[in-house]
Design goal:
alpha/beta; Rossmann fold; eight-stranded mixed β-sheet; 8 strands; about 45% helix; about 15% strand; globular
């Protein structure tokens, strides 16, 4: 199925890498849903994408990944629309922040992993249905980071604790969770129905660093890639035919790369089981 016949949902697509990814997918003719926490910012992004690409098949899906109730509402709204879903790009993320989600999780873990875990699982049936209708597997693309190499594991007992001063450690853990989730999802769903991958987009001068103090943020961004450059691997993983044969892989610069040795089936299974427990009240039939 060519790009113009596929439907893409990109979280955090009102800014940064997500916006660049959404624009490129729209430029290729795809049906694009802009996932955004703010409906107003989402609509502004839609207007910009339509203006820049000429593709009017672009819409907004309001979702706050820091609130699992909002994730449920967004998924329900998507299902009610009757749209197919061929590619879900779990792109939204926070970095260098302090805070907690609505359910009390440390914000990096809660937004970067747990919100996406729930969203993916709630949309999984539609992804699999769309694959069967299209005769080609759907995809889940998790935007991780090479920061995942810095995490020594997942501190399950500390995920509701106060974050560190910089949030660097928590960010690395959340990015490790993205890779673990992608691999475990690949083990749980047949590859002829779903391809699940994760990726490092590069170190990007995006709004993810907006909470870093001004002078430090300016210095950091001087040495980072642009958001358009950062979107290249996301777009590749969302569209390239060869990705269909690499479910569970980790990508860097549009090529498969070995993930951290910490990424094991045992840890992936444990993260999945704990994530199921933490989200069960928000998933039908699991209370």
């Amino acid at each position: 199925m060519p790009a113009e016949e596929r439907t893409y949902l990109i979280t955090g697509a009102n800014t940064g890498i997500g916006l660049a990814t959404a624009k490129e997918l729209a430029r290729r003719g795809g049906r694009v849903l802009v996932g955004a926490r703010s409906a107003e910012k989402g609509r502004a992004a839609v207007d910009a994408i339509v203006r820049d690409t000429g593709n009017e098949r672009v819409d907004v899906l309001t979702v706050d990944l820091g609130d699992l109730a909002s994730v449920v509402s967004a998924a329900r709204g998507f299902f009610d629309s009757g749209r197919p879903l061929h590619v879900l790009v779990n792109n939204a993320g926070v970095g260098g922040q302090k805070g907690r989600t609505a359910q009390g999780f440390e914000i990096h873990f809660g937004v970067n992993h747990l919100g996406h875990f729930l969203l993916t699982n709630l949309l999984l049936d539609r992804l699999r249905e769309s694959a069967r209708s299209a005769g080609r597997p759907s995809r889940v693309v998790n935007v991780s980071s090479d920061a995942h190499y810095q995490a020594g594991g997942v501190p399950f007992d500390d995920l509701r604790s106060e974050p560190s001063l910089t949030g660097v450690k928590e960010y690395a853990v959340s990015k490790l969770c993205n890779v673990l989730f992608a691999e475990e999802l690949a083990r749980r769903v047949p590859a002829d129905e779903l391809v699940s991958v994760s990726l490092h987009p590069g170190v990007i001068a995006s709004d993810i660093w907006r909470r870093v103090p001004g002078p430090a943020r300016w210095l950091m961004k001087r040495f980072m890639k642009s958001t358009d450059e950062g979107a290249e691997t996301s777009v590749f993983c969302a569209t390239a035919p060869e990705v269909d044969t690499t479910t569970g892989a980790f990508y860097d610069n549009c090529r498969v790369k070995a993930a951290s040795p910490v990424v094991t089936p045992e840890l992936g299974r444990l993260l999945w089981e704990r994530s199921e427990e933490w989200t069960k009240e928000f998933r039908p039939g699991t209370r």
